[in-house]
Write a structure and sequence with these properties.
The strands form two sheets. The protein has a seven-stranded mixed sheet with strand order 3-5-4-6-7-8-9, with helices on both faces. The protein has a two-stranded antiparallel sheet with strand order 1-2. By secondary structure, it is of the alpha/beta class. The two termini are 32 Å apart.
């Protein structure tokens, strides 16, 4: 349990922190999800330490459930608090989805401890995220689209809304069901699990309309602050963060790399772990030497 602003967070480490290759820390999405999303990525621990943690008020971390802690800045400050707690002088940082927002903010600070930055299916700005979500919704069967339009806030969330949203998720969030090993891990190590109050406070109740504190988030100006040659943008072929959108963001960062995981939705490490790690391994090795 590592001390961070507002409480303590659960941290697990696979691999040797004193090994020959720089450690990688992975920042989960949500807001309010858990480190369990990265279970398949622990295969990287055969060559470098992999650091996973649950953000404050998520998973096995402390749950003060104080909305004053639920700010982009505090979650970004949390990253370096984890680094100090585990005693790592230099590392790679990967953030996925909402965790990509945190990684973007962290990378834009240009901390000297940062060797390589990976923005995996990131939320760069709410405006573009919503535009992508609505473009993908338009690809679903007409009756599913109609149900989802009727579920936009302030409409109540019904069973029909949940089932229609599951259709969206099956196409663009997680295209393959979790393995039994992943389900068991989440049951045994998920702690309090997903925090819906945190999610709804920061984002809202719908994939297609943001009503929370992130509704006006715009990290696009931070792209100009990134160290391009040490930055990788990566997402899935069928990702909620559409490749055409993320590729456009990557093009605005001189020297940055961009890769798409074939066959994957938003959950690239669950849908296509071998392909995702096949992209990540050589890129991280190159950053070790940079």
């Amino acid at each position: 349990m590592a001390p961070v602003p507002g409480g303590r967070v659960y941290v697990r480490i696979n691999g040797r922190l004193d090994g020959p290759r720089l450690p990688l820390v992975m920042i989960h999405g949500g807001p309010g999800s858990t480190h369990a999303a990265f279970l398949n990525a622990l295969a990287l621990a055969d060559e470098r330490a992999v650091i996973l943690y649950d953000q404050l008020d998520s998973g096995r971390s402390d749950h003060p459930n104080n909305p004053a802690n639920w700010t982009v800045k505090r979650f970004t400050d949390e990253v370096d608090a984890v680094r100090r707690a585990v005693g790592v002088p230099r590392w790679h940082v990967l953030g996925q989805s909402w965790g990509g927002t945190v990684a973007l903010e962290y990378g834009a600070r240009r901390p000297p401890e940062l060797a390589g930055l990976v923005l995996a299916s990131p939320l760069i700005s709410t405006r573009t995220w919503i535009a992508d979500a609505n473009a993908l919704r338009a690809q679903l069967p007409p009756h599913i689209q109609a149900i989802l339009r009727g579920c936009d806030p302030p409409a109540p969330i019904t069973t029909a809304c949940e089932k229609a949203t599951d259709v969206f998720y099956a196409n663009f969030l997680r295209r393959d069901p979790p393995t039994e090993a992943m389900k068991q891990y989440s049951r045994l190590h998920g702690g309090a699990g997903f925090n819906p109050k945190l999610y709804e406070t920061m984002w809202g109740s719908s994939e297609f309309v943001a009503t929370g504190t992130l509704k006006d988030y715009d990290g696009e100006p931070l792209l100009a602050e990134l160290d391009g040659p040490h930055t990788l943008f990566i997402d899935g072929q069928y990702d909620e963060a559409r490749p055409r959108t993320l590729g456009g963001f990557a093009a605005r960062v001189p020297g940055a790399d961009f890769a798409v995981v074939p066959g994957a939705g938003h959950s690239i490490f669950s849908d296509r772990p071998e392909e995702a790690l096949g992209i990540l391994r050589p890129w991280l090795r190159g950053q070790d030497r940079a």
